[in-house]
Amino acid sequence: MHVTTIDHYLPDPGDLMQWTVDSGAVRPVASPVPPSFNQGFHLSGSEGESVWLAAAFDIEGRVDGKALERAYRLLIARHGTLHSAFVRRDGEIERELYDPAELILKQEPMARTDSPEGLRDLLWSTLNTACHPFGFPAYLLAAIDRAERSTVFCGFDHAHVDAYSMSIIIDDLYQLYRGCLEEPGGFFADTMPMAGSFVDYCAAEAEAAIVGPRDPRMRAWLKFFDEHDNTPPGFPLDLGLPPGQAAPQAVDLRDLLDADTTTAFEVFCRRNGASVFAGMLAAMARCVRVLGGGPQMSLLFPLHTRRSEQWRGAVGWFTTNAPIKVAATEDFSESVQRAGPALRTAVSLGEVPVPHVLAAMGGLNHQRSDIFMVSFVDYRGLPGAAAHEDIGAHHVSNVTTADDAQFWISRTERGLALRTRYPGTEAAEPVITSFLDELSRFLRQPW
Asked: What is the pLDDT of residue 83?
């Protein structure tokens, strides 16, 4: 998987094909299932910017429009969140469900582009229009048609997908399209495993038993936030942006380690009782210390909640957060040895639903829109990963504004890569560049 942002995405030019979903004659059914915690947070602050995630992969030759249209129809029917929507009614956010059998897909006239930049900009504006959090649908169904190698391209408002979902969508569409090519009009995805519905997951989340203040995991959560004045910790190096201010988002994309060096780093981490993610956190904490940020790095990190087989193939926003403090000692091996058990403990804290934590602490003193976080996704174990390189799989994110630093580490067969999102200000630019350069330099030397 290639993890990138729309401003860095430069596909070869071609004809942009697009399908719109006609739901005008379909009467949606009101659902009693409330938005998940993530969805509610996202929807409550979605008055301006469009926050979407897109997936792309290549196919040989020109696009068979009828086969891809049917594949998109099957994808929508397969995943409950893709035939659901949110509306504002009397000041409340409510969920509505559509019968996928009644939806009609309509192919729009092709749009021709002559340059990668022109196609990128067209995709960007089309995604911003199509992937809106309220109303139906909240996604773009498209393709880039070329003579020799075409690209299937689709994007979704964040309310309905997470990073893991991008791999599921690529795998599903790849299989569905091939099936619809081989059996025109007769492929019903019977050979594909069942996929759970994120709407069902949201219902279960709303009914989850409360984790009380006597639970040791809850006590650990409350202690963490008490040490940070009930405020999510920010990036420990000064980015020169006061709370309440944001700036246009800047992006840094870089390869950290190739496949062989990543394997060597993993051996080193395992020898010290840690995972690659724990080792990376220790390396980042070390770089913070070298640059004057103190001997400890505190942060929240996202982790997925697909803890049962029911949700493994489901599209949705299956993520939560967990708190961790990472120490940076003089001896890097010792730092990794500490980071390993700290991460394992933090993962157990992630089993406590965040809404329960916020209720127990009486609310969050959130001074920024963004949260300093470090994400780690090992794409090698995700659905369809074996084909990612051959089909040029991409996860493309939007570029908006930022008021803190966020880091996405991805592991693939090529090694470790890092996508960084941060405020694009004169003050933040040299700080983030120094940090990332130091991290890259350190990881490439003997540990």
From this structure: 96
Counting Cα atoms < 13 Å in the Cβ hemisphere of 433 gives 8
- CA distances from residue 7 to 18, 98, 113, 140, 398 in whole angstroms, order as listed: 21, 33, 17, 18, 8
Residue 46's contacts (CB-CB under 8 Å, 6 or more residues apart) are: 133, 134
Contact between 250 and 424 under an 8 Å Cβ cutoff? The reply is yes
pLDDT confidence tier of residue 149, bands split at 50, 70 and 90: very high
CA–CA dist 175, 187 (Å, integer): 10
The dihedrals phi and psi of 157, each to the nearest 5 degrees, come to -60, 145
Tell me whether residue 402 is exposed, middle or buried, using C-beta atoms within 10 angstroms of its C-beta: 0 to 12, 13 to 18, 19 or more. Answer: buried
C-alpha–C-alpha distance, residues 228 and 27, integer Å: 48
Q: Which helix (H) or strand (E) holds 420?
A: strand 415-423
What is residue 242's DSSP assignment?
-
**pLDDT tens column, 264-306:** 999 999 999 999 999 999 999 999 999 999 999 999 999 999 9
Query: What is the per-residue pLDDT for 78?
Result: 96
Planar angle of CA 235, 236, 240, nearest 5 degrees: 75
pLDDT digits (tens, 9 = 90+) for 167-207: 999 999 999 999 999 877 666 666 788 899 999 999 999 99
pLDDT of residue 192: 85
Q: What are phi and psi of 289, to 5 degrees?
A: -65, -45
Amino acid sitting at position 199: V
Whose CA is closest to 430, among 154, 217, 237, 279? 237
Cβ atoms within 10 Å, residue 421: 22
- Residue in this structure with the two tokens 């995604």, named with its chain if needed: 127
Those residues whose C-beta lies under 8 Å from the C-beta of residue 233, and which sit 6 or more positions away, are 298, 299, 300, 372
Can you give the C-alpha Rg of the chain in angstroms? 22
Residue 277's identity, in one-letter code, is F
Rounded mean pLDDT, 388-414: 97
Cα 158–173–420 angle (5° rounding)? 40
| CA neighbor of 413 nearest in space, from 270, 257, 254 | 257
Q: Is 230 exposed, middle or buried (0-12, 13-18, 19+ CB in 10 A)?
A: middle
DSSP string, 324-346: EEEE--SSHHHHHHHHHHHHHHH
Judge whether 188 and 182 are in contact, CB under 8 Å: no
